[in-house]
Amino acid sequence: MPYYDDPEPQNDENTPLISSDTNGQKFVGLSPKTSYASGWAAFGVAWTVVSIQAFLRWFVSEDFHPAPLVDGPDTLARWRFVMLRLVEIISTAVLFGFFWYCVVVPLRTPQPGPDGIARRGLSLDGKFVLGGLAAWVSDGFLNSQQYIFAWNAHNVNMGVWTRFLPFHREGGPHGYAESLVWGPPMYVYFCAGVAIVSCKCLQPLRRRWPNISNMNLLIITWCGEFLFDFVVENSIICLSHAYAFPNTYAPLTLWAGETEQLPLYESICVATLGSFFTQMRLRSLDDPCGLSPVEHGFDAWPRPLQSPVRAFAVIGFCALSTICVYHLPINWLGIIGTSRGKLPSYMLPGSGIESMYPC
């Protein structure tokens, strides 16, 4: 079934809907016979169900309230408190900008497609933004076993949903201040944002060197995102104490033992994740129909289900890549880590020190 929304497929040989074999026989359709969309969409639906149940259970639980400020001798310096609020304001503005231009505008204003016909609907960028927000739910996995990611209790928060996700250790850390303001934007600008900006910056390189491979472009992207993440995260940690890495793998940690210790593998994982998103976007730009690899095969579904299948396929990609490329290695290296940072009392979990690490 054709991808475009035209009532009848165009029959001109120049239309991207039609390709020909060596005998001149025409085939209508945009996606190859190999269907990836169904599998990715299935995971997207499954992750959406897991996320909704976690949030619903969290909303009605005793965990749904601002995380307590644990009694202790430490107080957040006023200048750091101001920087924390500044991080929240900037993050909110960035998220609003992405949501407006990538989601709202395409739904309100028809945008030209690969065939030059303008239609309303989400582009891959808009699906990346929504997928990033869906993937943000997986942030609860960070402390599912041990307290390897500390949160400042002064964050705008309502606690955390970690106890309602799979694999949470009984008696493990909970009741900490998962940020509702600067947390979600990170899953957008480190993924969708990097992909959008990278593709824009890489276009001049492609024009200058037409034969340059996507792999070389991704290496350039990876290096750029590594530097971007290192500067952004190090600045946020040092200036605002919005979060910290209390337990890290020492050989790959800078400033080990300090509150501001920074594991290099954080930037490595984020850069790799951003490169995955960039690759998807590059492939969609190269595709004559504007499809990313995970959307191919959506046209095997009935027409009313095609748009949802494409959307859930991208959500599935966003969630699975975030879990596999970021959360799994971060958890593993944190659990085996030996470098314990100095945590001020305003970064301790509300569930108590005894919940931070298994006995």
Task: Describe the structure in your own words.
The protein is mainly alpha-helical and 359 residues long. It has 2 domains: 1-30, no CATH class; 31-355, no CATH class. Helices cover 49% and strands 6% of the residues. Strand 3 and strand 4 (118-119) form a beta hairpin. It is globular, with a radius of gyration of 22 Å. Residues 1-33 have low confidence and may be disordered. Keywords: Membrane, Transmembrane, Transmembrane helix. Residues 12-22 have a biased composition (Polar residues). Residues 1-11 have a biased composition (Acidic residues).
Shape: globular
What percentage of residues falls in helices of 4 or more residues? 40-55%
Distance from N terminus to C terminus (CA atoms, Å) equals 58 Å
Average residue-wise pLDDT? 90
CA radius of gyration is 22 Å
Task: For this entry, give a set of tags.
359 residues, mainly alpha, 2 domains, two-stranded antiparallel sheet, two-stranded antiparallel ribbon, 10 strands, 6% strand, disordered N terminus, transmembrane helix, transmembrane, AveC-like, membrane
Question: What is the element layout, followed by pairings?
Answer:
Layout: E1 18-20, E2 26-28, H1 37-59, H2 78-108, E3 111-112, E4 118-119, H3 124-136, E5 150-151, H4 183-208, H5 214-240, E6 243-244, E7 247-248, E8 253-254, E9 262-263, H6 264-286, H7 303-335, E10 339-340
Antiparallel strand pairs: 1-2, 3-4, 5-6, 7-10, 8-9
Pfam family, one: AveC_like
Region (Disordered): 1-22
Keywords: Membrane, Transmembrane, Transmembrane helix
